[in-house]
Amino acid sequence: MQVIETLAEGLKREIKVVIPAKDMEQRMNERLADVKDKVRINGFRPGKVPVSHVKKMYGKSIMAELVNEIIRDQPTAILSERGEKSATQPEIVMTEDEKEAEKILSAQADLEFTLSYEIIPAIELKSVDGIKVTREVVDVSEEEITEQIEKIAESARTFEAKKGKAADGDRVTMDYLGKVDGEAFDGGKDEDAELVIGSNRFIPGFEEQLVGLKAGDEKVITVNFPADYPAANLAGKEATFDITVKEVAAPAATEINDELATKLGVESVEKLKEIVRGQIESQYGNVTRQKVKRQILDQLDALYKFESPSKLVDAEFENIWRQINTDLAQSGKTFADEDTTEEAAREEYRALAERRVRLGLVLSEIGEKAGIEVTEEEMQRSLFAQLQQFPGQEKQILDFFRNTPGAAASLRAPIFEEKVIDKLLAEVAVTDKKVSKEELLADDAEDGDKPAKKAAPKKKAAAKADDAAEGEEAAPKKKAAPKKKAAEGDAE
């Protein structure tokens, strides 16, 4: 077998592989000799079939098997011998001429094919001694815990019917029918719908017009759907709703005590506070970690500058760009609305894609050199988390991960990356800093790995392109109005 390098330009490689016809014939004859003793052919006793007859009957099919095995196995072996790693699956090209293919299968012509690929560049790891990060820490106050419990208690709050007029905080039970240009629209009708005034669950302007109504009242209210409303046929439209109030109920007083804790499924108010504190600390901890991670990535980005495989960058850019255009379409906006142009946005998000690929390669190298591995148990936990996000679709998700090439890697990659970040956190200089929750949650350039200048919907697109969750979908839309977001389902 001859292996000839025909292109070595930057990261691009092209290899020509030639296996002489006589070698292919020898391999075929070895396979035929093995088959001869196993096949059953009428007129011949088992094991007594002449090789020439077996060759006549099965030669081409066996040769085809050999060609497929070589095409499948040799690229990996060749790359290993060359000490190279391909950034993507190598592209394999061989003759498509039927006559030439026939000659190869008849062992009358050499088997030739080419491998085209980009190598992953060699990365010389640098010291992280100079990397310094600030870890922002928030102390959770008793007031915040109480505030959060009160919000949670809304789910257990009871209401008592009253005869007076509806006020802010009251629950209104009503029938409604929504119309645009005098015509009822899909999803704009409901009966016995319950709405707590001030919950901001319905579109702007709807709830405020219920204030002052009492049981038995009828009223036509007028509202405007937001310009970015998910249902395109309603976005920006003026609508009227025929309202019939059936009941007005005032909220019962809520006390944070053991009785409330029991209603919420917890044995005591102290345990409830403990749980809520843990939840808040976990939420802040996630934000803190993302900010620390961002600082590390920014400094690694400054440390490592090298050419990244173009196919990886292209794939990453396409993921980002697809999300950008999805967000624009959903919001009904254009690049001009975002104070940019498509050309400028492409340029900036291309730079973002290059950064992500480069940092991904750096983190991968750090992890491999450190012997970091993702366990089967960790993969199973990640898969379970995916299943929890989409109740009722468990089978489809399991089938996806079983049958889709590379799907398992989408579970492994974020786990591996976080373990590498953990390793780096143990090595870099970390300074803790007490901050308020407002400071912690302040929007400082969102992800930190988005373009510095304005390009497309910055607050969502680049961030979503990072989520794995690429299986992320909006919830089923049951009714279009009058909720603020169609994805929230029925008006309740």
TrEMBL record:
Pfam families: FKBP_C, Trigger_C, Trigger_N. Signal peptide: none annotated. It catalyses: [protein]-peptidylproline (omega=180) = [protein]-peptidylproline (omega=0). InterPro entries: PPIase_dom_sf, PPIase_FKBP_dom, Trig_fac, Trigger_fac_C, Trigger_fac_C_sf, Trigger_fac_ribosome-bd_bac, Trigger_fac_ribosome-bd_sf, Trigger_fact/SurA_dom_sf. Keywords: Cell cycle, Cell division, Chaperone, Cytoplasm, Isomerase, Rotamase. Residues 436-492 are annotated as: Disordered. Residues 453-462 have a biased composition (Basic residues). Its main location: cytoplasm. Residues 169-251 form the PPIase FKBP-type domain. It is an enzyme of class 5 (isomerase). Its EC number is 5.2.1.8. GO terms for molecular function: peptidyl-prolyl cis-trans isomerase activity. It is found in: Cytoplasm. Gene3D superfamilies: 3.10.50.40, Trigger factor ribosome-binding domain, Trigger factor, C-terminal domain. Belongs to the FKBP-type PPIase family. Tig subfamily. Consists of 3 domains; the N-terminus binds the ribosome, the middle domain has PPIase activity, while the C-terminus has intrinsic chaperone activity on its own. Involved in protein export. Acts as a chaperone by maintaining the newly synthesized protein in an open conformation. Functions as a peptidyl-prolyl cis-trans isomerase. This is Trigger factor. It comes from Peteryoungia algae. The lineage of its organism: Bacteria, Pseudomonadati, Pseudomonadota, Alphaproteobacteria, Hyphomicrobiales.
